[in-house]
C-alpha cells in the first residue's frame, strides 16, 4: 500500500490512543481543524474533546502542562505546529523538559512527545522554515528524532509515545505528502522502531553519508547518480539524533574511511558540525580525508522560492560535494 | 471560624518546623555546608502553611524557590531534604538537582524550575490528570511577586481558565524581586490578584503573616476550585526577612522597616501568643517542641553529612533511564 509520511504520523497517533487511554494530543488547531497540515483530522470525532484538545496560543503553557500531565500519569503527545515555535518556549524545553528527570530524580517519569513540523516548505520564510534539532542537541536528557520516511515515522512515533523519556519529534514538512510503498500487513502490525538505532538506507563502500530527515531521499538519489560514476555511497539515516547510534555509523566508516553529513539546517553549529567533530575525535585513524558538511547556507531562509531552494542542499549539490571528497 | 485543638496544633507544628528548617538552612549555609545558594523563606512561612492546610490527599504542588521547607510539610523526609541540599546520594535526585529541586512525587510535589516561572504550566498539566481521572483534587501553583510578572504565568492562567482546570494560583508577595520592590515592578499593588479578573478567575488578597486568615482565604479559593468551578487566585502579602540569597546585604531597602516587620509581623510568634492565650499550648510545650525538632534536624544533618556523594561513574544516571 502507498502511505504518505503525514498519514503514517496520524495513524501512529490513532493507534497509540486506541491502545492506551492515557495518551492524548493537544496543541494549536489540532481538534476541529485537524492540524494545520491535516494530520489529526477525524481524531476529535473518534477520541472526543478531552483527548484531542485545541489550545490557545500559549506555547510555554503547552510545554509546561505536558510536563505536569506526564509526571502525574498521562502520556501527552503535543504539537507546536511549526518547529520554529520551539524557540518561543525554548526555556521550558531546554531547562524543564530536558533536565526534569535529572534534577528531580528517578521517581519523576516524563512520557511526553513534542511534535513539530520542521524545515522548508516553499516560501514559508525565515520564521517558518527552520530545523531546530541542533539547538536542542545541546540539551542532555532530550531524545531527538527526525524520521525520513512513512514507515520509520510511524514506528518511531509509536516508540516515542511509549517512552518514559521526553522526545522532540521533528517532521520535515516537505515529506508530509511523500508516499512510500509499504506491505499492508506490516503497516498494520503495530510495529515499532527502537529509539537510538540508525538505519543503513543504502549500502556502499566508498563514502559514509549520514543524512537527516528531508536529506535522506536526496542523499539516496545522489547515491544513485554517483553509483553511475563508480562512487559507492553508504547512506545512513540516524533517525534518532540524540542519543546517537554511533556504532552503526562507525562500523560504516571502518568500511568506507570517508564520511559526510547532510542536513537541511544551517551549516554553522549545525548537526554536521557536531557529528563531524565527534566522528573525527573517535575515528581519526580510520579516516582518509576530512569530514564533509553539506548543509543549508548560513542565511535566514529567504522567502524567494528559487533562493530558498538554492540555500538548501539539492541532489546536485550533494553529488558535487561527494565527488569533491573523492578527488 | 471555629477550629479544633488538633487543627491548631497541627498548624503550629507545620509553622514551627518550617520556620526552624528555614533558619537551619541559613545556619548550615553560614557554616559552609551548602554547596549552592539559600533563599531563606523566614518570615513567609504562614503563607505556605495556611494555604497547604487546605490540601487533601491526591493534590499536587508546584512550590516556589523560597520556603522550600514547605516540601517537608508535604511529607519530604528530613534526610531526603538535607540529602539533596547537601548534594548527597540520599537526596531525592542524589545531589543532581539541589536546593530548588527537593521533594518527592509521591507527596504530590511536581518539582520546580530554577528559571522561575517556566514551571507555571506544570500544575495545569497535573490538573489535566486530575480531570482525566475524575478526582476532586486541585493543583497548587506557588509563585513569588517577581516571577508573577513573567509571560509563562499568564499563558498558564489562560490555559487553565480556558479548560476550567482545578489550579489554585498562589502568589506569595514578599515585596521584592531580588532587589526590585513591587512598587517599582508592578503597576498594581496586588501583582497577581489584580489581574485575575482578566482570566475570569476569582481572587482574594490576604495578610500572609496571619496563618489562620491565610487558611480561611485559601479555603474559599480552594473550595471554589475543588468544586469544579475552574482556577482561582490567592495573593498572600508578607515580607522577606532576609536577602534574596544569603550574603545579600539588602542595601537597597530600609533596614528599619525590616526590623519593624520582624518585630511586629512574625507569623510564628503571633500565632504562638494566640495559642498560649487560648490555652491550646503552653510555653513549656513549645520550648520542648523546638528543642526536640532542633535535635531531629541536627541528627538528620549529621547523617546527611556522613552520606556518600555521587561519583563520576554515576554522573549520567537519570538521563535516558
Report on the architecture of this protein.
Chain A has 327 residues and is an alpha/beta fold. Chain A has two domains: 2-187, Rossmann fold, CATH 3.40.50; 199-326, Rossmann fold (3-Layer(aba) Sandwich), CATH 3.40.50. Chain A has helices at residues 5-19, 43-47, 59-71, 90-104, 133-136, 150-162, 184-187, 215-228, 246-256, 271-283, 305-311, 315-326, and strands spanning 2-4, 23-27, 52-54, 75-82, 113-118, 143-145, 167-172, 179-181, 199-202, 207-211, 233-237, 240-242, 259-266, 292-296. Chain A has a seven-stranded mixed beta sheet with strand order 3-2-4-5-7-6-12, sandwiched between helices. Chain A is globular, with a radius of gyration of 19 Å. By secondary structure, chain B is an alpha/beta fold. Chain B has a single domain (5-314), classed as 3-Layer(aba) Sandwich (Rossmann fold), CATH 3.40.50.970. Chain B contains eleven helices and seven strands. Chain B has helices at 5-30, 45-52, 70-73, 78-85, 121-132, 151-162, 182-185, 211-229, 255-264, 267-277, 283-306; strands at residues 60-62, 139-144, 167-173, 176-177, 180-181, 203-207, 232-237. In chain B, the strands form two sheets. A five-stranded parallel beta sheet of chain B has the order 1-2-3-7-6, sandwiched between helices. In chain B, helix 1 (5-30) packs across helix 11 (283-306). The mean pLDDT of chain B is 97. The interface between A and B is large, with 43 and 49 residues.
Amino acid at each position: 500500500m502507498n502511505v504518505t509520511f503525514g498519514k503514517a504520523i496520524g495513524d501512529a497517533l490513532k493507534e497509540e490512543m486506541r491502545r492506551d487511554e492515557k495518551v492524548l494530543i493537544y496543541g494549536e488547531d489540532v481538534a476541529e481543524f485537524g492540524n494545520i497540515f491535516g494530520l489529526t483530522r477525524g481524531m476529535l470525532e473518534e477520541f472526543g474533546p478531552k483527548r484531542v484538545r485545541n489550545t490557545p496560543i500559549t506555547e510555554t503553557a503547552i510545554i509546561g502542562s505536558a510536563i505536569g500531565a506526564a509526571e502525574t500519569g498521562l502520556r501527552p503527545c503535543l504539537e507546536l505546529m511549526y518547529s520554529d515555535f520551539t524557540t518561543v518556549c525554548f526555556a521550558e524545553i531546554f531547562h524543564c523538559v530536558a533536565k526534569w528527570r535529572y534534577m528531580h530524580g528517578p521517581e519523576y517519569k516524563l512520557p511526553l512527545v513534542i511534535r513539530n513540523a520542521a524545515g522548508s516548505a516553499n516560501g514559508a520564510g525565515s520564521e517558518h522554515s527552520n530545523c531546530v534539532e541542533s539547538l536542542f542537541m545541546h540539551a542532555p536528557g532530550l531524545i531527538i528524532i527526525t524520521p525520513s520516511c512513512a514507515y520509520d515515522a510511524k514506528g518511531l512515533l509509536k516508540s516515542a509515545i511509549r517512552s518514559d523519556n521526553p522526545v522532540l519529534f521533528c517532521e520535515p514538512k516537505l515529506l508530509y505528502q511523500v508516499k512510500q510503498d509499504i506491505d499492508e500487513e506490516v503497516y498494520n502490525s503495530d510495529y515499532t522502531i527502537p529509539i537510538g538505532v540508525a538505519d543503513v538506507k543504502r549500502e556502499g563502500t566508498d563514502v559514509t553519508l549520514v543524512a537527516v530527515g528531508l536529506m535522506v531521499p536526496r542523499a539516496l538519489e545522489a547515491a544513485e547518480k554517483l553509483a553511475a560514476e563508480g562512487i559507492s555511497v553508504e547512506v545512513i539515516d540516524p533517525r534518532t539524533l540524540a542519543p546517537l547510534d554511533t556504532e552503526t555509523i562507525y562500523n560504516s566508516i571502518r568500511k568506507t574511511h570517508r564520511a559526510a553529513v547532510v542536513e537541511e539546517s544551517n551549516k554553522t553549529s549545525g548537526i554536521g558540525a557536531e557529528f563531524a567533530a565527534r566522528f573525527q575525535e573517535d575515528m581519526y585513524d580510520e579516516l582518509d580525508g576530512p569530514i564533509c558538511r553539506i548543509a543549508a547556507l548560513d542565511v535566514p531562509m529567504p522567502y524567494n522560492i528559487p533562493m530558498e531552494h538554492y540555500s538548501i542542499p539539492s541532489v546536485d549539490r550533494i553529488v558535487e560535494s561527494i565527488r569533491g571528497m573523492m578527488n | 471560624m471555629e477550629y479544633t485543638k488538633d487543627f491548631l496544633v497541627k498548624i503550629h507544628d507545620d509553622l514551627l518546623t518550617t520556620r526552624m528548617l528555614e533558619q537551619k538552612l541559613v545556619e548550615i549555609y553560614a557554616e559552609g555546608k551548602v554547596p549552592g545558594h539559600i533563599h531563606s523563606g523566614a518570615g513567609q512561612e504562614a503563607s505556605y502553611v495556611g494555604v497547604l492546610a487546605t490540601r487533601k490527599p491526591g493534590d499536587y504542588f508546584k512550590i516556589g524557590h523560597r520556603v522550600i521547607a514547605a516540601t517537608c510539610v508535604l511529607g519530604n523526609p528530613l534526610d531526603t531534604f538535607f540529602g539533596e541540599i547537601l548534594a548527597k546520594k540520599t537526596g531525592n535526585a542524589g545531589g543532581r538537582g539541589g536546593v530548588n529541586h527537593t521533594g518527592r512525587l509521591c507527596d504530590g510535589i511536581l518539582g520546580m524550575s530554577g528559571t522561575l516561572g517556566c514551571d507555571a504550566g506544570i500544575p495545569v498539566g497535573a490538573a489535566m490528570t486530575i480531570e482525566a481521572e475524575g478526582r476532586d483534587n486541585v493543583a497548587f501553583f506557588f509563585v513569588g511577586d517577581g516571577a508573577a510578572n513573567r509571560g509563562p504565568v499568564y499563558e498558564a492562567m489562560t490555559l487553565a481558565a480556558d479548560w476550567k482546570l482545578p489550579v489554585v494560583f498562589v502568589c506569595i508577595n514578599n515585596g521584592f524581586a531580588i532587589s526590585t520592590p513591587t512598587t517599582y515592578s508592578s503597576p498594581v499593588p496586588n501583582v497577581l490578584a489584580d489581574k485575575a479578573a482578566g482570566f475570569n478567575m476569582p481572587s482574594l488578597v490576604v495578610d500572609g503573616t496571619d496563618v489562620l486568615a491565610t487558611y480561611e482565604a485559601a479555603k474559599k479559593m480552594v473550595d471554589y476550585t475543588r468544586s469544579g468551578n475552574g482556577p482561582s487566585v490567592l495573593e498572600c502579602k508578607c515580607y522577606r526577612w532576609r536577602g534574596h540569597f544569603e550574603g545579600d546585604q539588602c542595601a537597597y531597602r530600609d533596614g528599619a522597616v525590616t526590623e519593624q516587620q520582624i518585630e511586629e509581623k512574625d507569623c510564628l510568634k503571633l500565632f504562638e501568643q494566640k495559642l498560649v492565650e487560648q490555652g491550646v499550648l503552653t510555653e513549656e510545650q513549645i520550648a520542648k517542641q523546638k528543642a526536640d525538632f532542633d535535635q531531629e534536624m541536627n541528627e538528620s544533618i549529621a547523617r546527611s553529612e556522613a552520606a556518600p556523594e555521587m561519583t563520576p561513574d554515576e554522573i549520567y544516571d537519570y538521563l535516558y533511564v
